């Protein structure tokens, strides 16, 4: 049950984000191109951070599985 | 060693001759694919001809080579292993599959020119490209089919394992083929041929080193 | 092999250094825009110059020249500063050009006593109706561009279109270098495993490195796509280096599918190791040979798969190389955590 909630929350977040970028595409382009495209660099850093966090999440899940195995023994 | 290879190729030929239907089914598959593709595209554009030709050859090759290791049972394989050297087995498969694939791509060429046009300007270069393509496809498909034969769901696995590996080769093949069709003019196609030969030699060398590990079952 | 903790701190330190210094160092003052971009001979024109990162109002003695390819130049009559980013340079264009072409591109050169010299190549195209090269050469002078100021401040190069995104060199490019090295490490452990099929740790290491390599490959592709969208115009442009990364990702994802498709553990490790080595060898031509033959939007194309000398100046090297080492160390660390986990799992299963 917990898992389903988490997946749903994640889905809503994604939906929200895509909605945001879909509605304000001009704003998004403006943000990315003004002041020497500085926010492009920020975007790249954010992507790297998100990627590392997702990897952390994957490892976290694997640790959890191992813990469950130890508990069930 | 050479004797062994010869005997193994003869064995493969004999087996395929006894099971003519399986080879005939591949040819029928080829004919159907070309027929559908020609109806779907309905064009005499040489660029499109080139793309269609190589896609058809790629998919038919993957189907034809899938027979070599994937359709052999484990017991058969152990039997060969006791009789022959793994390198000899692999070499015989490479040679035999190269021949089969070359014949198949010639048939594909014949059918496609029969149904559409013959856009080939430089015949020598085109058939050399076909032969190099058959060699490369045979090496990659044969070796990956020997890898995939260890797993379940073999045919899908063969495609996903081998198609990305074929891309470097396909880049050069398509370039050479475009050249022989007169779509691009580039005087340095000798380099491309050398690159293809180098890739083939590299893959053959590595596969000879690695194949014994796959046989140690 | 790598038991201590200090190397992890070195990696994190290098990444933090690259982030802080890479974000804080300013771009070199440069010319962003010059308008109008066309003029005729005999005219008096007011060139409105927009600068980037400039401080025009900080100095009263700014000089400006228009110069052609051969060095024939004319000095501006006066330069009026509007604010820090804008100024107007007033030129009297002579009646003839020092060339027998009808239209000649001229480069605008500004000299600021603090910001240093700034160049805007082919800023103004001047058209002449009557052509006289000899007369033009008397009206335009050679060797009048002198005493240019050198800006010695620690800055990054400022290029049009790229601008601030030049900093992505420190965050996007090292991911690719680290990916290749990490896949190489996976091949190393695969070879070790084939030689020693009893040591399950080697197989686990190959898996750990491959998964981190995939992570870096995905991050490199996505960050590269974002960068490309605002520099080249689209997220994906079938550039050879994008193709190489995509193929590498396909191959290594197939590696994991292959592992999942084999039941027997011992066989799984062996077959996967064989595929890993074979795939890396098949990738070698794509990484090192094919890019040399194809045009690429990436820098350093046409004979050099890496970065050319012109794409990195010394100030950037001081951050770029530490960033590469830092990301390789972070990759090792992530892989290290991953394969230690796999070792524990193996021990738990086989107790």
The helix/strand series of chain C, from N terminus to C terminus, equals: HEEEEEEEEEHHHHHH
- Percentage of residues in DSSP E strands of chain C: 15-25%
- Spans of chain A of at least 5 consecutive residues whose pLDDT stays below 50 are none
Q: Flag low-confidence runs of chain C.
A: 301-306
Oligomer: heterotrimer
- Radius of gyration of chain C equals 28 Å
Main attributes?
heterotrimer, A: 73 residues, mainly alpha, 2 helices, 96% helix, B: 217 residues, 85% helix
Describe this structure in words.
The complex is a heterotrimer of chains A (73), B (217) and C (351). By secondary structure, chain A is mostly helical. Chain A has one domain. Chain A contains 2 helices and no strands. Chain A is elongated. The relative contact order of chain A is 0.05. Chain B has 217 residues and is mostly helical. Chain B has one domain. In chain B, 85% of the residues lie in helices and 0% in strands. Chain B is built from 8 helices and no strands. In chain B, helix 1 packs across helix 5, helix 3 (46-70) runs parallel beside helix 6 and helix 6 runs parallel beside helix 8. Chain B is globular, with a radius of gyration of 18 Å. With 351 residues, chain C is an alpha+beta fold. In chain C, 48% of the residues lie in helices and 17% in strands. Chain C contains 7 helices and 9 strands, in the order H-E-E-E-E-E-E-E-E-E-H-H-H-H-H-H. In chain C, helix 3 packs parallel to helix 7 (314-349) and helix 4 (200-231) packs antiparallel against helix 7 (314-349). The interface between B and C is medium-sized, with 33 and 30 residues.
Short recap of the structure:
The complex is a heterotrimer of chains A (73), B (217) and C (351). Chain A is an all-alpha fold and 73 residues long.
Q: Helices and strands in order, then pairings?
A:
The complex is a heterotrimer of chains A (73), B (217) and C (351).
Chain A: H1 2-23, H2 25-72
Chain B: H1 2-18, H2 20-41, H3 46-70, H4 74-83, H5 86-115, H6 123-148, H7 154-180, H8 189-215
Helix pairs in contact in B: 1-2, 1-5, 2-3, 2-5, 3-5, 3-6, 3-7, 5-6, 6-7, 6-8, 7-8
Chain C: H1 6-24, E1 30-35, E2 38-40, E3 44-52, E4 63-67, E5 73-75, E6 78-81, E7 86-92, E8 103-112, E9 116-127, H2 133-139, H3 173-195, H4 200-231, H5 240-261, H6 265-293, H7 314-349
Parallel strand pairs in C: 2-9
Antiparallel strand pairs in C: 1-3, 3-7, 4-5, 4-8, 6-7, 8-9
